[in-house]
Amino acid sequence: PLDIGFYGITSKPLEDGTYVPPKSQDGDLSWWCDLCDIGWADEYGLILHERRSYGHRVKQAERQGLPPPPKPERG
Fold first, then answer.
1. Cα separation of 69 and 3, whole Å?
2. At what angle do helices 43-52 and 54-63 cross, to 10 degrees?
3. Which of the four, 29, 33, 69, 73, has the lowest number of CB atoms within 10 Å?
4. pTM of the model
5. Which domain of life is it from (predicted)?
6. Is 72 helix (H, G, I), strand (E, B) or coil?
7. Residue 40: which of 2, 1, 7 has the closest Cα?
8. Cα-flanking dihedrals φ and ψ of residue 37, to 5°?
9. How far apart are CA 33 and CA 74, in angstroms?
């Protein structure tokens, strides 16, 4: 099974368009990335996401009106 704290879980919109953070097997997802709409049960998952997620950094730059960051080197 996936480690939910590491991978995070995306929320699903309800019929009226609002978002409700889903429950994980650890209970509530208390750490949430509003930019990417993903939650984690622990802060470590969010910290890893903010460091490693290229998509998150692109959205952050767009929100601040900055050019997108360079793509990370693969290897």
1. 28
2. 80
3. 73
4. 0.55
5. Eukaryota
6. coil
7. 7
8. 55, 50
9. 25
Residue type present at position 42: D
Exposed/middle/buried for residue 41 (C-beta within 10 Å: 0-12, 13-18, 19+)? buried
From first to last of its 75 residues, what are the pLDDT tens digits of the chain?
A: 444 444 455 555 556 665 555 555 455 677 888 888 888 878 888 888 888 889 989 999 999 999 999 988 876
Strands 38-40 and 9-10: antiparallel
d(CA 28, CA 11): 12
3-state SS assignment for residue 26: coil
Q: How far apart are CA 54 and CA 1, in angstroms?
A: 25
